[in-house]
Write a structure and sequence with these properties.
By secondary structure, the protein is α+β, with helices and mostly antiparallel strands. It has a single domain, classed as endopeptidase domain like (from Nostoc punctiforme) (endopeptidase fold (from Nostoc punctiforme), Alpha-Beta Complex). It contains two helices and twelve strands, in the order αββββαββββββββ. 32% of the residues are buried.
């Protein structure tokens, strides 16, 4: 009985309409502020380009970039001036902390900024040996020195990072985190 209960809990966490079927490519698996995260299958899967009715390029379906751009488009009604690029390209290391990233139309903060990440920020991770394109996600909550993100095209739709404040600078505990971008209100 113990194993049946564990299996049902695991399957129900998959957030599908049929608890006995694992999510398939294109299935809704999570959401933030009414914007859905979709299952991609495997990390390298490409299912065509997602373009809005008015012609704005959201990116390759079910990839991480497509989710964050769709989130900003649907939730904030924000179109990025440069609608192309890999995940790591969302962060421009040449831009000073707290300044405007004109390619994205967002303020940019370096990991180690005087300003902490906030809900709704776009978090950018650098490329690495197994993923040269990097990764982007949305900050879903910040509390108790912990930052939770929601993401698409990863093993889990949610992940957390420890947030430290040292000498009035905020740093996320993953050295791959380049920084975060925020809509200027």
């Amino acid at each position: 009985m113990k194993y049946v209960t564990i299996l049902l809990v695991v399957l129900s966490a998959c957030n599908t309409s049929n608890p006995f079927q694992l999510p398939q490519k294109g299935d809704k698996i999570d959401s933030l502020d009414g914007v859905y995260v979709y299952k991609n299958g495997n990390m390298n899967n490409v299912s065509g380009r997602n373009v809005t009715a008015d012609g704005y390029n959201l990116g390759l379906k079910y990839q991480c970039v497509e989710f964050v751009k769709r989130y900003y488009y649907e939730h904030y009604h924000h179109k990025m001036p440069n609608s192309y690029g890999n995940a790591k390209d969302f962060f421009n290391a040449q831009i000073s902390d707290g300044r405007m990233n004109t390619d994205r139309g967002l303020l940019q903060f370096k990991n180690g900024s005087k300003r902490p990440p906030k809900k709704g920020d776009l978090l950018v991770l650098d490329g690495w040996i197994f993923n040269r394109f990097g990764h982007v996600a949305i900050v879903s909550s910040v509390k108790n020195n912990e930052v939770e993100i929601i993401q698409q095209n990863c093993g889990s739709s949610r992940a957390t990072y420890q947030l430290s404040k040292i000498a009035n600078k905020y740093t996320l505990d993953d050295s791959g985190v380049l920084g975060w971008l925020r809509l200027h209100h």
